[in-house]
Amino acid sequence: MIENQLVPKHELLDKETSENILKKYGVTRDEMPKIKASDPALGKLKADVGDIIKITRKNPFIGDSYHYRVVIEG
Question: How far apart (Å, rounded) are the C-alpha atoms in residues 73 and 49?
Fold first, then answer.
């Protein structure tokens, strides 16, 4: 992960948590927003194609918000 205040926290989810997220939102990996494996924000996560990344954005007014992306080639 890039150490920069402007880059939100990126986490690689384990398989069980990934499946729970897919069930919770009623989507498939194909329907999720994408992030390329070459994205610099993934840095040292060692994410594979098909993995799900949790992005935590901090907002002083609403607190943390969570966004999920599936890793694609690129």
Answer: 6
pTM: 0.86
Give all domains of the chain, ordered by start, each with its CATH number. 9-72 (3.90.940.20)
Are the beta carbons of 10 and 3 closer than 8 angstroms? no
Do residues 52 and 69 make contact, with C-beta atoms less than 8 angstroms apart?
yes
Tell which phi-psi region holds residue 50, choosing left (phi > 0), alpha (psi between -120 and 50) or beta.
left
pLDDT in tens, 44-61: 899 999 999 999 999 899
